């Protein structure tokens, strides 16, 4: 090697590349570090929206994304998705989408409580109220998704206790009304999930999705409230008693389905057990506030 070239290695051109990586190592690649931290999420994601929802669940907001040189979480998720090996997961994803028969089975499960309650009540069976309570509580389990917190079935037990206590106080007609409300509750939950997912697909920022999701949730709650009132009229039970209970159970179903933390749900159900006439209404109102906050998050609508 000529002496000039040997001498230039540490300094001139040779020093440039050596100093460059040193500066890059000092500054770091924040997106690469984030990719390493959430590698499993990024590799399993079907699309960038799944990564955006997962990042939000870990506390990363649009403001936090600015530290990674991105305008929002969605833009950051697109880069993470592009830098992740996910070809095999993306190819296998369509097989995980529920088919038509699964949707019909879900609707059939929703019909069972009403059919059982109406048949038992029409036959004059003494156990009609108890059967309806069990059917209504079981209907909350079918669409369940793993949520935050310990003791996953405490919420289901509390829901059964709330319905059972109310039926014990107000009679079998209330149980029939709650059972009849399971079908519109199922349809409302499915419509809300589909609508929220569509809005997530069309959003470009977390705040944008929140602004789109909250009116959808309130519309679903309003439609279900009307359906629950109609079910109460058909069953012959007082509206002020049946509607708050049905709404409380509907919100419980939504929050369980979208993997919300169980502690606020359990607290609302425990409040409804207080022997005060206004307790179910207060519990439903409190749970609605929690649902508006929790279900407006993109992470609540990631694919299970």
Explain what this protein looks like in three dimensions.
The protein has 304 residues and is mainly α. It is built from 17 helices and no strands. It is elongated, with a radius of gyration of 26 Å.
**How much strand?**
under 5%
**Class from helix and strand fractions:** mainly alpha
Q: Which H/E pattern describes the elements?
A: HHHHHHHHHHHHHHHHH
Helix coverage percent of residues? over 70%
Report Rg.
26 Å
Taking the sheet with the most strands, its summary is: none
User: What is the β-strand count?
Assistant: 0
Instruction: Assign an overall shape.
Output: elongated
Instruction: Please state the average pLDDT score.
Output: 78
- How far apart the termini lie comes to 62 Å
Q: Count every helix, treating DSSP H or I runs of 4 or more residues as helices.
A: 17
Report low-confidence residues grouped into runs of 5 or more: 1-26, 88-99
